[in-house]
Amino acid sequence: MSLADLVDTHSHLDAAEFDPDRDAVYGRACAAGVTTQVVPAISTANGRAVAAACQRYPGCRPAWGMHPIYVDSHAEGDLAELRRQVEAWRPVAIGEIGLDLFVPGLDFVRQEFFYAEQLKIARDYDLPVLLHCRRAVDAILKHLRRTRVPGGIAHAFNGSRQQADAFLNLGFRLGFGGAFTWERATRLRALAVELPLEAIVLETDSPDIPPAWLGRARNEPAELARIAATLAELRGLDPAEVARATSANARAVLPALAAAS
């Protein structure tokens, strides 16, 4: 399936899972109509791999940030390095940042420190943020109210309607990807239907969060076209309309994408 001008707002095209066939993966994405991929870093060291992918593939745009799952590997000095990365290559967002209460054994106090400090960097550079918020939405929102940033995306959103509205009121869009394509995801599918279309952006989180038709197989950005079609089917809309709307939403909340298009 191919749709025109799709934006994948969360693709880890730099990931090792794509080392054997990254060029082919990118080619399939382009053939499916995915013209733009936002590639977020997970650490300052990982920025090199993200930069390499974005230099090689013209449709890829970087985000710089430190992922909460890897909090044990982050050092306070990395925050200064993150600022240097922003100065050297202005990203579309600060990300992937946030909090995670799903993975056991992560130091939550340390997570909060790096999340809060990265919000300050986003505020200082007037950049949106890409948020990892697994089972930590309320804590994520608490910090967003303390440190205001120019919006962003709640990646892989899986919260309540009340939490969704809280993000929207703060200028955010909500990332929907493979998770809502599974029939058992009844609450998430209901949200995908009842939320205003202007609230939604599409993502794959490649190589993770595969859609239902892939089972446990590796996900990749080309699947975004069928994800868009699934959203259109649930909402009773034309897939081309969903593609246009979600891509416009992505460019509205990540203005650097509109500037580059």
Automatic annotation (TrEMBL):
Pfam families: TatD_DNase (PF01026). PROSITE patterns: TATD_1, TATD_2, TATD_3. InterPro entries: DNase_TatD-rel_CS (IPR018228), Metal_Hydrolase (IPR032466), TatD-like (IPR001130). A divalent metal cation 1 binds at residues 10, 12, 96, 205. One of its GO terms (molecular function) is metal ion binding. A divalent metal cation 2 binds at residues 132, 155. It comes from the Bacteria. The keyword DNA-binding does not apply. Keywords: Hydrolase, Metal-binding. Belongs to the metallo-dependent hydrolases superfamily. TatD-type hydrolase family. PANTHER family: D-AMINOACYL-TRNA DEACYLASE (PTHR46124). This is TatD family deoxyribonuclease. It comes from Parasulfuritortus cantonensis. The lineage of its organism: Bacteria, Pseudomonadati, Pseudomonadota, Betaproteobacteria, Nitrosomonadales.
